[in-house]
Amino acid sequence: TTFNVSSVTNAMKGKAILERNGLHAYVSRALDENGNNGCGYSLLVSGDTAKAESLLRASGIRITGKVPADR
Hints:
Layout: E1 2-5, H1 8-20, E2 24-31, E3 37-46, H2 49-58, E4 63-67
Antiparallel strand pairs: 1-3, 1-4, 2-3
């Protein structure tokens, strides 16, 4: 699952929070619907994505979008 966040700072903070809690995450530029670089950054998360979303929100990381892995 990919979580879109508003800034590289939030993406890096989110990655650190998730990894401290045993989840793997990768940071990348967010893509728009045409596959081009959009504004913002994304966290690609594998594993328990419900736990990941909960951790991010509890830490004050604003999620601006969510794309399921099967899409």
